[in-house]
Amino acid sequence: MSEVNLVAADHWSIGEAAQVCYDLTTLAYPTGAPWQLATFQTDLTAAHTNYVFAVIADNIVGFVSYTTLFDEAEVTNVAVHPDFQRRGIATRLLQHVFQMLTLPAKIFLEVRQSNLAAQQLYQRCGFTTMTVRKGYYQATGEDALIMRKMIE
Known about the structure:
Blueprint (H helix, E strand, L loop, with lengths): L4 E4 L5 H15 L8 H8 L4 E8 L2 E11 L2 E9 L8 H12 L4 E8 L3 H9 L3 E10 L4 E10 L1
Parallel strand pairs: 4-5
Antiparallel strand pairs: 1-2, 2-3, 3-4, 5-7, 6-7
Helix pairs in contact: 1-2
Function: Acetylates the N-terminal alanine of ribosomal protein bS18.
Pfam families: Acetyltransf_1 (PF00583)
Main location: cytoplasm
């Protein structure tokens, strides 16, 4: 596999970055994109929100988005193109988030109860399940697992 470079979102226009995020989540998530294109556009400009893209040979193959506030962070999206999954790219993106935080820090995320592959990824990265939000995903009524990682 070619080298994976991590690049901040400001390398692209808001419109380009939002379209890539929408397209990647549509392909990568079992239930399709969780947000509308306009939501990605708004989120890319929000205070305390960060987007980092995984790039191979000038092609964006994945991204992570997260918000930070004081000693807490929330990972809002992790998506890797299906052709590049299971190659450590999502792990590398999450590790980048961990390195960017002011320590000590608490990191939260939510994941569909049915998304076992993502749960395994997060567990390998040190996340543990805290609680379940019943019926969290409105379109399907599926529960969300709330996971947390503490970094000292």
